């Protein structure tokens, strides 16, 4: 089939490459010219897609990156994988609406349109469907097929990728559901059909709200353990030995990425619109999560004080800018907020992140440096925010005067503390 995947980011590129690998002719439609040029020359900017894998599908001629929306002419399947950010606390579906409007210009009978972008329940039927129908004159379920299949990409996860993660599929009706299953079944090991698109949209929000709430909970437990002089990491490991009724989450400097800080807001916003009620668990979790970077800075300040130093005037080296290990994604990363707070307190802030491109816009005043014994030695304090591979942690422990480890990566000792 002729497949067009709109958006070639962390969600769209793995989908496009996999669809090409299974024999479809796939156009990766991306508005960013620089990204498109990189893809065309076999340069992947997504950790989950190595250059070799990208080059292979390009050489077959079945994957074509492009900025030209005219490739939608006579498409069989179009998949929307564009961002869904928040604007002033409310969902911004501008990218989804723009994509749907573009698709509608080329929509023909028998084609399938799929939304993978995370959004609130009712978007596919209540927003995307009218845009497609009004502009094309066609009717979903009768003339074309429409569905929602939430992305479940976990960047950098070595165990669970696009192929072996079960794929939720839902449609505006039985014919649309069948069309989605026909498309995804050859791409993944297992599909999970649902009765409607609202259930599919809600499923994705359940997953990410669950994670966000539990991360907030374990961060609060870590604070309680610190106040009570308890090793929270030892207790968590012990709790994880229980084979039922417990799922291990770990403390850190805060939540980041496009999903966890944002997706629960979509659900909470939708609930307020329909009922006037707040999603109370998420409301509390959001407050806990939002104050986490400030708590990291407070712990750092306490550590410096014990050495007779203040944050003001100290050189602080941040290890990691990305929101999680071994990815380049800095969206909503708590490390950026930690940097801003330290700068506001008068610290000289230096940052190491071999995964994040050198042209990434860091907060003004942050100096990007390479990891080295000199940098470790010259810092008054080092804060391990993202435990990337490729850092010499043994050297860090030898050279650094004080390390605040927010990821429990290092062996604790005289100069190393955990959050």
What does this 3D model show about the protein?
The protein is α/β, with parallel strands linked by helices. The chain is built from 14 helices and 16 strands. The strands form 3 sheets. An 8-stranded mixed sheet has the order 3-2-1-4-7-8-9-10, with helices on both faces. It has a 6-stranded parallel sheet with strand order 13-12-11-14-15-16. Strands 5-6 form a two-stranded antiparallel sheet. Strand 14, helix 14 and strand 15 form a beta-alpha-beta unit. 44% of the residues are buried.
Quick summary of this structure?
With 419 residues, the chain is α/β, with parallel strands linked by helices. The chain is built from 14 helices and 16 strands. Helix 4 runs parallel beside helix 5, helix 7 packs across helix 9 (263-275) and helix 7 (197-227) crosses helix 10 (280-290).
Question: What are its keywords?
Answer:
about 425 residues; 14 helices; alpha/beta; about 40% helix; eight-stranded mixed sheet; globular; six-stranded parallel sheet
Net shape: globular
Query: Would you identify the regions where 5 or more consecutive residues have pLDDT less than 50?
Result: none
DSSP strand content: 5-15%
Number of helices: 14
What is the succession of H and E elements?
Answer: EHEHHEEEEHEHEEHEHHHHHEHEEHEHEE
> Which structural class do you get from the secondary structure elements?
alpha/beta
Instruction: Give me the side-by-side strand order of the main sheet.
Output: 3-2-1-4-7-8-9-10
Biggest sheet character: 8 strands, mixed
Instruction: Report mean pLDDT, rounded to a whole number.
Output: 96
Q: Whole-number radius of gyration?
A: 23 Å
Total beta-strand segments: 16
**Amino-to-carboxy terminus distance:** 51 Å
Helix fraction, binned, reads 25-40%
């Amino acid at each position: 089939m002729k497949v067009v995947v709109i958006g070639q980011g962390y969600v769209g590129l793995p989908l496009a490459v996999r669809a090409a690998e299974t024999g479809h002719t796939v156009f990766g439609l991306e508005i960013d010219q620089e990204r498109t040029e990189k893809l065309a020359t076999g340069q992947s900017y997504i950790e989950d897609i190595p250059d070799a894998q990208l080059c292979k599908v390009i050489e077959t001629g079945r994957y074509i990156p492009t900025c030209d929306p005219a490739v939608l002419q006579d498409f069989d399947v179009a998949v929307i994988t564009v961002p869904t950010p928040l604007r002033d606390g409310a969902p911004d579906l501008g990218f989804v609406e723009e994509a749907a409007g573009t698709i509608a210009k080329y929509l023909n009978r028998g084609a399938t349109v799929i939304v993978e972008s995370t959004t609130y329940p009712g978007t596919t039927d209540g927003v995307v469907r009218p845009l497609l129908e009004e502009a094309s004159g066609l009717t979903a379920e009768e003339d074309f097929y429409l569905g929602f299949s939430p992305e479940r990409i976990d960047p950098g996860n070595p165990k669970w990728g696009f192929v072996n993660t079960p794929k939720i599929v839902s449609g505006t009706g039985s014919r649309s559901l069948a069309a989605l299953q026909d498309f995804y079944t050859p791409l993944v090991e297992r599909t999970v059909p649902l009765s409607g698109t609202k259930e599919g949209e809600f499923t994705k929000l359940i997953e990410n709200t669950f994670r966000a709430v539990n991360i907030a909970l374990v961060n609060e437990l870590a604070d309680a353990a610190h106040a009570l002089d308890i090793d929270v990491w030892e207790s968590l490991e012990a709790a994880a030995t229980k084979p039922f009724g417990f799922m291990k989450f770990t403390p850190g400097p805060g939540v980041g990425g496009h999903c966890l800080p944002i997706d629960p807001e979509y659900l909470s916003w939708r609930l307020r619109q329909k009922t006037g009620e707040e999603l109370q668990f998420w409301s509390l979790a959001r407050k806990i999560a939002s104050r986490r970077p400030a708590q990291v800075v407070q712990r750092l300040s306490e550590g410096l004080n014990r050495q007779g130093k203040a944050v003001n005037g100290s050189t602080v080296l941040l290890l990691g800018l990305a929101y999680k290990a071994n990815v380049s994604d800095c969206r909503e990363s708590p490390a950026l907020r930690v940097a801003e707070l330290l700068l506001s307190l008068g610290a000289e802030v230096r940052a190491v992140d071999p995964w994040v491109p050198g042209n990434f816009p860091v907060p003004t005043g942050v100096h990007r440096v390479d990891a080295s014994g000199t940098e470790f030695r010259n810092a008054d304090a080092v804060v391990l925010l993202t435990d990337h591979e490729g850092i010499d942690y043994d050297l860090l422990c030898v050279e650094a005067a004080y390390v605040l480890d927010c990821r429990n990566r290092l062996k604790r000792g005289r100069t190393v503390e955990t959050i």
